[in-house]
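Running log. JK asked me to keep both predictions on one page so they can be read side by side. First protein, sequence followed by its C-alpha cells:
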Amino acid sequence: MRRYGLSDGQWERIKDFLPGREGHVGGTAADNCLFVEAVLYRYRAGIPWRDLPVRFGYWKNVHRRLRRWCESGVTERIFRHPAADHDNEYMMIDSTIVRAHQHSAGARKKGGADQAIGRSRGGLTTKIHAIVDAAGKAVALFLTPGQRADITEAEPLLDEADPAAFIADKAYDADPLIEKLEERQITPVIPSKKNRICPRKIRFSIYKKRNIIERFFARLRQFRGIATRCDRMKSTFLAVVQLVAAILGLN
C-alpha cells in the first residue's frame, strides 16, 4: 500500500457506495480510488489544493468533485456504512478543538449559514463533536464554533446512538441529559460536578474506557488538514472529517 493510500480491504468496503462506479446508472467516474486517495493525501499532508501532486490530476477538478460529493451526501453515506456496524455495549462522547487557518475565513453566508468558525482563547477555532463506540469507531459527528459548550450537542448526537452505557466527562453532567439517558434506559457513566448536591455513583471500571475517544481524536488529528482547518465551508470540512473517520473505522 502506498503512503496515504487505501488498502485493498478498505477500498472493497467503500467502493459500492461511490457514484460513477462500474454498472451504476450514469457516467462512469475516472478512477474513484485515485480521487479518494487524492483527498486523503491533501488532508494528511496539510498542503494547499494547488500543491496536490500531478499524479492525482488537476487540483481544481479534484476539489470540484469533492464539493459535488459533499453536496450530494456521498461522504455521509460512506461514513454511515461502517458506523452502522457499531458496538452497543457502551459509547462515549467528547469534543476536540482545531485551529482555523486565516484562509478558512471569508466564506459567503448564504441565508445566514453558520460555517462553524468561532473565536475562543486560541483565536479562530472549530470544535469537532463525536460519539465513538467501544471499538473506537465514530458513530456520530458534528461541527460547531470553537466557543460552543460541549453539552449543547450531546442530545442531538445521542439520537443517532443506542448504547447500553454512555460515557462522558464532567462537562456533560447536566440534569436534562441524565434524565434523557435514564428515559431511554441508558446507564449514564458521567462523573458529578463538584457543585452537585447529591453526587451520583458511577462505575469507574467503565469510565476509564473513555481514553478510547481520546485515541480516536489523536488519530484524526494526524491529518494535518483536519488539525488545522483551511476549508471555508463547514459542509466541506465535515465531509472530510466523515470520510477520514470512516477510513479509520475500516482499519
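And the second, directly underneath as requested:
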Amino acid sequence: MEHTAGVRRQHFSLRRLGLVAGALAFAFSVPAHAQDEQMTPIEIPAQPTAIELGTGPLPGGDIPESWHSQYGSVFARNVVVATLTPFLPDPAQANGTAVVVAPGGGFRTLSMENEGWDVAKALAAKGVAAFVLKYRLNQTPAEMAAFEQSMTQMFSTAAARPPRPSPAEMMANLEPQITDSRAAFAMIRARAAEWNVNPDRIGMVGFSAGAMLTLATALAGEDAKPAFIGNIYGPLATVEVPADAPPLFVGLAADDPLFANSGFGLIEAWKAAGKPVEFHLYEQGGHGFGMYPKTTTSTGWFDAFAAWMTMHGWITAPAT
C-alpha cells in the first residue's frame, strides 16, 4: 500500500510536468541570435571514455544514431544506446562531489558540446567529478532534410497549447530517459571509490529537456535521489514537492520564448515546502544559452551555480 501511494505521488508530480511536455518537443537548445544557422551532418565523434549504461537499446529504435553541427557546436540525435562520459578532476583537487549533466534538445536531439562536455569540463576544473549523460531519444527521420522539415513543422505549431497527458502517459513518455538517469546514478555510486566520489554528494544539472529529466529524476527516482539539482531554462510548472526534495538551483532568461511567460510555480512550490531554492532570472539570454559566450548576464549562470554549490559545501572537501 505504501509503495502504491508513492507511485501515485510520482504520477501526480509528473502529471504537472506533463503540462510542458509538448513544449519540450520543440525546445531546442539554441542561442537566440542563431536560429537560422544550417545543420550540417558530421561523423560521430570518437568518445573513448563513454561507458554504456546497460539499459539496453531503445525499443523500436531502428534509426541509428547520427550527429550534426550547428551554432558552432555539435549535437547527437537518434540515440538508441545510453552512455555516461566521465570528466574527472585532478585527484589532488577532487572534493568528492559529482554532478550528472543532462543536455537538452527536446528529447529529439542532445546539445552534447554546449550543454554537456563544456559544462562537465567547467565542473571538473572546480574539483567536481562530472558525468555527461547521453540518454536515449525519441526517433527522428534519418535524412537531415526530413529531420529539418519535421522540426520546422513543430516550431510552426509551437504556440498551440499541448494536450494534457495522463499520469500513465507521462511516465511512459519519459520511461527510457528516467531509466537511463537512474542507471547513471547507480553506476557512479558503484564506482565511487574509483572515481573519488562521495555517494552522498551526487547532484544533477539539466538544460531544457534535460532540466525536465533532472526534475523527474528527483521526483520519481527512488534509487537515484540527487543530493541537489540544477534546472537551467527548464519548465517551471508547479509540482508536488516530496518531503526529501533536494536543494534546487534555477537559471532562466526573462526573454526565454518557451518558459519565461508561464509563471514560477516550481520555485513557489519549493519555497512553500520549506526546501532550499535559488532562482536567477536574467534580463536577457533567450533559450539555450548554455556555455555559449554571450554579452548578456545569462552567461554568468555557471559562476552563480558554482557559487551556490560552494555555499552548500559541495565544492569544498568535507571536514574529516
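Observation for JK regarding the second prediction: Confidence is low (pLDDT under 50) at residues 1-13, 18-36.
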